[in-house]
UniProtKB/TrEMBL annotation:
It comes from Euplotes crassus. CDD domains: AKR_AKR1-5-like. Gene3D superfamilies: NADP-dependent oxidoreductase domain. Keywords: Oxidoreductase, Signal. This is NADP-dependent oxidoreductase domain-containing protein.
């Protein structure tokens, strides 16, 4: 390599290193408090948001997971996903085999890459459904085919419940340690950068840590102000397992979700939101992030997708965090008892 080439590379590196910082500065130091990209005086600076959305959690294998993810369950068109990546700064996209939308996610990834986002910048998660417990490598290869990817950043065991065989009226006998071996094989083959679990409780995690050659990097579970799972969170923190919170707004759009209570209308969250000039949704998301959790939020509405990710710039006081802590009501929305595929059992209550 010639000297001029090296010099050019050096200059490029310096520009790359310093440009985001400069952008952040020019935003906050704008005399009238408005920066480029802000649509109104009260709007939060887009540049600053983009910077903060790159904030990530370091997993126990050294990989980084962006702290704010886009859920895709029930997302109806890929434009919401593409827009969220390209225009709103989402980098972490969460899908699953059972959502039956991996092709849709694949279109959005393709569009985002065409718009100049690189694959490396994206963090893509998909999940193993229980029908694939016997051969996770095969199931992931099928997911990768639908996603049109060479690897996923995260592969999760979706639920710790083996397949329920309707005809036999019983569960398949696939022990979890065997499933995990298959997950570890995915890492060895380079088709999953990280592996983890979802909907695991403390007991299952303790057991897994006893047999795992590769410990789970994360546990994706339901966490919101009405269902805080403090014990599980403490365990995960202590043993280096990142917590990824799903249904952080307690799924207000889910037809069978909730029991009449709506986080978006919670008077305490509303009161905190008023003092920050934000919305209750942003307060609930900021609370989750501030606990150190990764958050997965989903909406079909791009205005709300923007509102959601802007929660990264809301800083709550410890008094406000305590106030939200007092809202815990052990109100779990995702209950396997309603699901035939899991044999209609109460696995978590
Ligand atoms: C999208 O969200 C915004 C903000 O909450 C709301 O005003 C608007 O009505 C929503 N649009 C649709 C189509 O639901």
């Amino acid at each position: 390599m010639g000297e001029t080439k090296i010099l050019k590379l050096l200059i490029l590196c310096i520009i790359l290193l310093y440009s985001p910082i400069d952008l952040a500065k020019s935003c906050s130091e704008e005399p009238d408090g408005v920066c480029e990209g802000c649509t109104s005086e009260n709007d939060i600076c887009t540049m600053k948001i983009l910077q903060e959305t790159s904030r990530s959690v370091v997993l126990n294998n050294g990989e980084k997971m962006p702290a704010f993810g886009l859920g895709t369950y029930d997302i109806q068109n890929q434009e919401v996903i593409t827009y969220s990546i390209v225009e709103l700064g989402y980098r972490h996209i969460d899908t699953a085999q059972v959502y039956e939308n991996e092709e849709l996610v694949s279109k959005a990834i393709k569009e985002a890459i065409q718009a100049g986002i690189s694959r490396d910048e994206l963090f893509i998660t998909t999940k193993l459904w229980n029908s694939g417990f016997e051969n996770p490598v095969k199931a992931l290869r099928e997911s990768l085919g639908r996603l049109n990817l060479k690897y996923v950043d995260m592969y999760l065991i979706h639920w710790p419940i083996p397949e329920f065989e309707e005809d036999k009226k019983t569960f398949k006998k696939t022990p979890m340690h065997q499933v995990w071996q298959g997950m570890e094989r995915c890492v060895e083959l380079g088709i999953a950068k990280s592996i983890g679990v979802s909907n695991f409780n403390v007991q299952l995690l303790i057991d897994m840590l006893a047999y795992a050659k590769i410990p789970p990097t994360c546990n994706q579970v339901e966490v919101h102000p009405y269902y805080q799972q403090e014990g599980l969170l403490q365990f995960c923190q202590k043993y280096g397992i990142a917590v990824v919170a799903y249904a952080p707004l307690s799924s207000p759009a889910r037809p069978d979700g909730g029991n009449g209570r709506n986080i978006l209308k919670d008077p305490i969250l509303q009161q905190i939101a008023n003092s920050h000039d934000t919305t209750p949704a942003q307060i609930a998301l900021a609370w989750n992030l501030q606990l150190g959790n990764v958050v997965i939020s989903k909406t079909n509405n791009v205005t709300r997708a923007k509102e959601n990710i802007e929660a990264v710039s809301v800083a709550l006081s410890s008094k406000e965090m305590d106030l939200i802590r007092s809202l815990d009501a052990n109100e779990k929305i995702y209950d396997t008892q309603e699901w035939e595929c899991f044999g209609n059992i109460h696995a978590f209550k």
